[in-house]
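pasting for ref
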Amino acid sequence: MLISIAVDFHSADVATRERFHLTEERLEALYGAPRDEVMREMALISTCNRTELYAWTGRGRTGGLEQLTQSLARRWMGSRREAHSLLQIARRRSGIDVARHILRVAAGLESQVLGDGQILGQLKTAYRLANGRGTAGPVLHRLIETALRAGKRVATETSLSAGRNSIGAEAAAMVLHRFGSLAHARVVVVGCGKTGERAIRQLKKFGAQDVVMLNRTMSRAVELANAVGGRAAPWDAMHLELAMADAAIVATGAELPLVKAELLRECRENCGTAGYPLVLLDLSVPRNIESSVRTLEGLTLVDLDQLHTPIVAAEEARRAAVPSASSIVEDELANFMEWSSAAAARAVIRPLHDALVEVARREVAFAAGDDAVAVRTADRIVAKLLARPMAALRNAIQRGETLDDLMLTMDQLFAEHGVRQGLSGRSHTIAPVVARESATRVQGA
């Protein structure tokens, strides 16, 4: 069964999202936890606007869905009590809803910025991490690869990603809106990752001349400054640079606030800029700017929640592409569900297939006296014999029929020496809940 739990901007504000953000320590614990016959595959997707945990479980009966979801939440939070708090606000999904959702995420249809141009890169990063830790198996491999393909198709076949389509770019647009012109404004960008780079490039398009870039790895700031034009500053000069700025965009992966109210106040007083207007935009989760900076004279603090309103207004031009993007998602979803049904059918019929192949190869080899001929001929014979049963099984799965008993019977009757793994040990068994929900949707997609 596919299941997922998610905390995103649709259901939780930035303060709540940062509470459930996975630190490096918690991420290590999540991926380092032993997997079992219940929780077989896992992958975490984390961006500034969402944290979502996907899993493929070894149980196909819907009666255990609540228990499975609780188990997944405990892996996320580390304790039963914290897991309960998470499930109070998390969005839960199962079966085809999980598959549809991750495809929509990859397509940019579920982003705070419609058609977000960064989401595919973030999904690839999450996939590489899960793959590297060995927690993504055949089902999540297929699911995420399908999602990535859907995202690429939406980007190339529709105009959903036209114009500004990232948090960084929209933050730059807000700075422009505040000042009217950036020709004489000094803008500091803290963090030169994907979000920071998008902000910097958009600021330059808007005519900003004085852009200062800071990054923990100085070489990255220098590289970006040389590429787009601007000045790289040392990391330890951050508060001084902010004190002399008109606006700043902060976007890093720090777990604790980097911009301290007291240090900023001291630097502004020392620079003679205390009371001057300064706009700070915090694009990070957890937030990187202490909320107490709001008490400083002349300072305006904007976080992701406050940025949402202008984002909604800016994306109206891209909404016309939503139907086309949604159609691509449904097309790719149908492909995934077809693969799922075929995988389930193969799982059920595998013992019979293997038994037939063994007998056919042995008998043909005896008659023909040629092992190579026996292999080819036996495989063709068995494929033709099982083509119709395979089609019938796929149809049964799509109708939502439970094949657990049939699978167990196949194991008992045909598995060699009775040692083949039964129902509980099949990592590729596709859950009845997936099939049941997909029965009409897949055929109509």
